[in-house]
């Protein structure tokens, strides 16, 4: 994570140009394409739903960031990116990232020094990160030189470079598309796994949402972005997915730039501060029965504040939130329109989450079937060929 300062501001501005509310809408066709592939995968192999979610998130991000048309199975770019995510999740779940942030000198300690195993860990995964970022970037450059590069964030950024571009500007064309995968894929997968878990645990919510979708599509087509304003209950369900188990329960750690006093406590400059997003989203006085998955809480005349805080706040608020919301929306409405999600043999999955910066429901099994023959035919019929 870059410290606050001019370089961070420039990076954030560059990111914003590709992921603000307006530009993010340009990615909707790519998101829908990945969702349709997800539906097909769920139809063919429902037990592997978790893997299909990873593939979907990978497809969305690699196509937006690099214009990569990922293979339906065994795509090498997705495989490398998944290895990186695995490494990131190991590092964050062991609190190494935080440890390193607090004590960066650990990197310079000899291997026998307590805590210095982080150096060994980092040395294992840094080359993988490098290959994840460096390889697709080189491919885009080569494709641009041949005049056959599809539109992508990387292509747009490379084309903006000229002979006067600084080292930092060149680095940014690599950093931004790579960063999108690092922060975007895992978070999207986590929210969608939470969605599956909630649907198995709260079947009456699932039924209500499906009834609303059917009332708009008559069950004769799959929903698309033009239906977005028509869904009220589904909208509330998605807010509840984000609130019920926030993807990053303690946000991303921040460091104080100057001394501060909060509630009478003196906090010196340089202290690390965490935002307890989980506590904000489980405040009894604002969200009664906070542990219950209850979309109706958003449908009263004076609803609670929307769960914006799950994306952080202030000058470091999540920059991918517009795109993330669209991907999650497209996946959830289409899954609800097409599939029945149930516990296996009436045994509800356990609501157990991993720790780490990004938190996931631990592995669970589901019984996922098409809602009808018509739903299965729609899934088959509308998949874009990749
Ligand atoms: C459900 C999905 C997501 C959730 C819940 C989420 C949540 C968060 C949170 C809590 C932060 C820390 C904000 C803070 O410190 O106040 C963050 C930062 C960030 N997110 Fe997301 N995120 C999601 C998806 C994405 C996606 C898809 C992208 C990229 C397209 C993205 C890009 C970023 C970036 C670039 C930052 C760092 C901002 C900075 O430090 O300046 N996120 N996200």
Automatic annotation (TrEMBL):
InterPro entries: Cyt_P450, Cyt_P450_E_grp-I, Cyt_P450_sf, Cytochrome_P450_fung. Its cofactor is heme. Pathway: Secondary metabolite biosynthesis. GO terms for molecular function: heme binding; iron ion binding; monooxygenase activity; oxidoreductase activity, acting on paired donors, with incorporation or reduction of molecular oxygen. The keyword GTP-binding does not apply. Keywords: Heme, Iron, Metal-binding, Monooxygenase, Oxidoreductase. Pfam families: p450. Heme binds at residue 318. Belongs to the cytochrome P450 family. This is Cytochrome P450. It comes from Multifurca ochricompacta. The lineage of its organism: Eukaryota, Fungi, Dikarya, Basidiomycota, Agaricomycotina.
């Amino acid at each position: 994570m870059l410290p606050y300062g001019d370089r961070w501001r420039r990076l954030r501005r560059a990111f914003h140009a590709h992921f603000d509310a307006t530009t993010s809408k340009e990615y909707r066709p790519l998101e829908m394409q990945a969702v349709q592939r997800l539906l097909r995968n769920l139809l063919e192999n429902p037990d592997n739903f978790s893997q299909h979610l990873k593939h979907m998130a990978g497809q969305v991000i690699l196509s937006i960031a690099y214009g990569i048309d990922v293979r339906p199975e065994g795509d090498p770019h997705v495989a490398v990116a998944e290895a990186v995510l695995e490494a990131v999740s190991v590092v964050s779940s062991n609190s190494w990232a935080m440890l390193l942030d607090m004590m960066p000198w650990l990197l310079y300690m000899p291997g026998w020094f307590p805590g210095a195993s982080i150096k060994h860990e980092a040395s294992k995964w840094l080359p993988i990160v490098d290959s994840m970022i460096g390889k697709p970037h080189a491919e885009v450059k080569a494709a641009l030189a041949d005049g056959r590069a599809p539109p992508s964030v990387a292509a747009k950024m490379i084309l903006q470079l000229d002979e006067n571009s600084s080292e930092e500007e060149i680095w940014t064309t690599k950093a931004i598309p790579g960063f999108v995968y690092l922060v975007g894929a895992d978070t999207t997968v986590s929210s969608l796994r939470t969605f599956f878990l909630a649907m198995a645990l709260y079947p009456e919510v699932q039924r209500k949402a499906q009834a609303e979708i059917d009332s708009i599509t008559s069950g004769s087509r799959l929903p698309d972005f033009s239906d977005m304003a028509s869904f009220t209950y589904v909208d509330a369900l998605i807010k509840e997915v984000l609130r019920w188990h926030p993807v990053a329960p303690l946000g991303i750690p921040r460091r104080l730039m100057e001394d501060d006093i909060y509630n009478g406590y003196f906090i010196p400059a340089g202290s690390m501060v965490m935002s307890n997003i989980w506590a904000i989203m489980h405040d009894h006085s604002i969200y009664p029965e906070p542990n219950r998955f209850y979309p109706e809480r958003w449908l009263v005349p004076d609803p609670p504040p929307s769960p914006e805080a799950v994306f952080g706040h202030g000058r470091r608020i999540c920059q991918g939130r517009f795109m993330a919301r669209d991907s999650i929306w497209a996946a959830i409405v289409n899954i609800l329109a097409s599939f029945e999600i149930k516990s296996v043999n009436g045994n509800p999955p356990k609501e157990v989450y991993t720790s780490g910066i990004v938190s996931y429901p631990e592995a669970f099994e589901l019984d996922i079937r098409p809602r009808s023959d018509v739903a299965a035919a729609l899934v088959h019929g509308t998949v874009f060929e990749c």
